[in-house]
Amino acid sequence: MTTAAALFDAARAELAGAPREALGRVVTPRRILGVARASRIVPSGTAWHLGVLLLTDDAVLATGEIVRARREARRGYTAQSQRDRAERAAAAHRGGFDEGAVVHVGWRMLDPEVLAEGGASGPLASVDGVPSVRWSAAGGYRPLDGYLAERIELLRNPPPGAS
Question: Which terminus of the chain has a lower count of CB atoms within 10 Å, N or C?
Fold first, then answer.
C-alpha cells in the first residue's frame, strides 16, 4: 500500500521543472494617524496547482481563491461580488505581483499524515485504506494516485486553448 506522503514525493519528482503559480497572503497595514490603508496580497511562495491541491516543495495545501493581479481601476460593477474580486486583484498588484500574475489566496495547510491513520484533512481522506481526494464539494472521493497522475499530465501538457 502506497502512502499519501510517498505519492506526493513522487509527484514532486515528476513535476521538477513544471510551471508553478504564486501563493499569496493578505496583509492589512496598520492605521496611520487613524486612517486605514488598503490591504495588499504579498508573496508567500510558489506551488504546483493540481486541481483542489497545491503542492509545494515541503507541504500540501488546499486551494482557496485564485486571483489575477491587475492595476486598480475605477470600474462600474453592479454586483458587490465583482467589486470585491476587483479589490482583491488590485491588492495582489499592490503587494508586488506583476500585472496578470495568477495568485492563490486563502489556501490552507493539509496534513497528509493523518491518512495513514484513516483520518481526513480537507479534501484528502483515507477511503477503505486508500489515500483519496475529493475533487469537488459535491463530488465523491477518488484514489489520490490516479488524481495526481491526471493533474500532472494536464499541467505538463495543457489542452489547446487553455491558459
Answer: C
- The pLDDT of 91-113, averaged and rounded, is 93
Q: SS in 3 state form for 31-56?
A: CECCECCCCEEEEEEEEEEECCEEEC
Q: Rounded to 5 degrees, what are φ and ψ at 161?
A: 90, -10
Q: What is the pLDDT of residue 163?
A: 61
Does the model's pTM come out above 0.70?
Answer: yes
Quote the cell numbers at residue 158: 495543457
- Rounded to the nearest 5 degrees, what angle is found at the Cα of 120, between the Cα atoms of 117 and 121? 120
Which element (helix H / strand E) includes 90? helix 80-94
Give dist(CA 79, CA 92) in Å, integer.
Answer: 21
